Structure formats: structure tokens, C-alpha cells
């Protein structure tokens, strides 16, 4: 599986607050988009993973906001797997407008089966 991927995101009007800034909670939706597209770039989907009985759950997340994003900004989101163990995958996200760093975030993802019992990270998710 690839360990890095980038996507471009245009800030939509409905994602902003009254001041025209990207609402802080919407950053996390962007980070999920980054994880999804990183997975897809490796030839897999969450749908296939869930059909096989493994469900990704966010165990921990944090975000450090550096500069605000605004309506209609074109952003670049870099998503990277920075650590993978038998039971978790850790991602780092960097969000840019041109060369300006707007946010740095991290998530820890665990996996459970349909009954909610912790299971190992799927073997195919090992970093290349």
C-alpha cells in the first residue's frame, strides 16, 4: 500500500462560518477525504474492507491550526501513514494553500469486526 497521497480541495461556501472562514470541524471531513483517497490510490476502498469484515475506527485525533482557509481557496491536502503496527495506523495530514501551511493533524485508526471486537490491521494495509 502507498503511504503518501495528495488531493486538491476547493473550500465550498457551505463549509465556511459567518466570517467566510473554513469552519474548524470541516477540517476533519477533509482529513477523512485524504485517508479515503490514499486507500483508493492503492487500489482499495473502505467498502471492500468493510465487506471483508474490518471496520476502521478513529481512536485519536488532533489538529493544530496555523492559518485560516477561506471560501473558494484551493487547498492541497497531503496525507501520510507515519506509523503502522499490528493494531493501528497513524496518519499525518498537512493542509496548504499554495506554499502556506494552514494546519497539521494526526489520527490514530484502529480496526474492529462487525461485533466491535478489536482486530489486527488488514495485512494488505502494510506500508510499502
What does this structure look like?
This protein has 128 residues and is of the alpha+beta class. It has a single domain, classed as Hotdog Thioesterase (Thiol Ester Dehydrase, Chain A), CATH 3.10.129.10. Helices cover 17% and strands 40% of the residues. The protein is built from two helices and five strands. The protein is elongated, with a radius of gyration of 15 Å.
- Low-pLDDT stretches are none
What radius of gyration results from the CA coordinates? 15 Å
How much of the sequence lies in strands comes to 35-45%
CATH architecture: Roll
Note the total helix count.
Answer: 2
Calculate the terminal CA-CA distance, rounded to whole Å.
Answer: 6 Å
Q: Count of DSSP E strands?
A: 5
Major sheet: size, sense and barrel closure?
Answer: 5 strands, antiparallel
Class by helix and strand content?
A: alpha+beta
Strand order of the largest sheet: 1-3-4-5-2
The SSE string, one letter per element, is EHHEEEE
CATH class: Alpha Beta
Helical amount: 10-25%
CATH topology: Thiol Ester Dehydrase, Chain A
Rounded mean pLDDT is: 95
Give the overall silhouette: elongated
Amino acid at each position: 500500500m502507498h503511504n503518501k497521497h495528495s488531493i486538491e480541495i476547493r473550500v465550498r461556501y457551505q463549509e465556511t462560518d459567518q466570517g467566510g472562514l473554513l469552519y474548524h470541524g470541516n477540517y476533519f471531513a477533509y482529513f477523512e477525504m485524504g485517508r479515503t483517497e490514499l486507500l483508493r490510490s492503492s487500489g482499495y476502498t473502505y467498502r471492500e474492507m468493510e465487506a471483508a469484515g474490518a471496520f476502521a475506527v478513529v481512536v485519536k485525533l488532533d489538529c493544530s491550526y496555523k492559518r485560516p482557509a477561506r471560501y473558494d481557496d484551493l487547498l492541497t491536502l497531503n496525507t501520510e501513514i507515519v506509523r503502522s503496527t499490528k493494531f493501528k495506523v497513524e496518519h499525518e495530514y498537512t493542509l496548504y494553500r499554495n506554499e502556506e501551511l494552514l494546519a497539521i493533524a494526526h489520527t490514530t485508526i484502529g480496526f474492529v469486526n462487525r461485533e466491535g471486537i478489536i482486530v489486527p490491521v488488514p495485512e494488505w494495509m502494510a506500508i510499502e
